[in-house]
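ERR on first pass: missing label on line 2. Operator R.T. fixed the label and resubmitted. Corrected input:
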Amino acid sequence: METATAPRRVERHETDKGYVPVYTTAVVEQPWDSYSADDHATWSTLYQRQRELLEGRACDEFLKAQDEMGMSAHMIPRFDQLNEVLGAATGWTLVGVEGLLPELDFFDHLANRRFPVTWWIRRPDQIDYIAEPDMFHDLFGHVPLLMNPVFADYMAAYGRGGVKAHAIGPDALQNLTRLYWYTVEFGLINTPDGLRIYGAGIVSSKGESLYSLESDAPNRIGFDLERIMRTRYRIDTFQKTYFVIDSFEQLMQATDPDFTPIYAALEQQTHLPAGDVQDFDHVFHKGTGEGWAEGGDV
Ligand code: PHE
Ligand code: FE
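pass 2 clean. output:
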């Protein structure tokens, strides 16, 4: 099938040994004219499918922001056009990248309100699953909430916190990464109409959009900063536990204190398996654990 003519980073990653991440630092211009008809069709298919699924499942802020930014199923959006709307709303700018960045580069971008977006989109045969982030995950999943002033501030604060954690050491960085994972990537939010999704890793996945809200298997537990920073997670299966915030303001307030003493205190604490419920948890739903893989928490 015909795909874009520019080099496709995704193909360099698929070796016999599976997914091998390669980290690059360069910021690239979005090569919009190089997208093929197949690339646009992949965007359209995914956009249409997820939007339909996410009505009543994603939080209103997310859905509203996609419309306000002018994202649609019609074609792959142009980063420069989105930037006009996004810049005016919250001062964030999208920058094109080849893929995953080294941690410190990533934190530095966020701290300066630049969100790195992978410029290429998955191939048609990868519609349902791709191991690494592509444009659909980054743009459809992460970018809309950057239109929300509170969430926009949270992401920038996270970037500054990342620079700090990086200087403190690997344990601090691991604690902070878990927070990102269980909020920015896999967070749920409690609303008067019920639980809704805001995590980018969920909204960009058909299977996990349904599973995170409707399956009896996973735990759904109230947001608790230190609990989250102790909890291992899954990178190869749906999550065993989702954490539920009450509001973006709660997230902002809970993460406002200096984490330095928290990181120090956490060094004395054990790490928690991804699927375990603790007796101090505020449990929305205790998972049945049905279909869970043994081991494999990171
Ligand atoms: N308050 C955190 C610190 O001092 C920074 C942070 C803010 C981290 C928001 C995550 C999210 O390190
Ligand atoms: Fe992501």
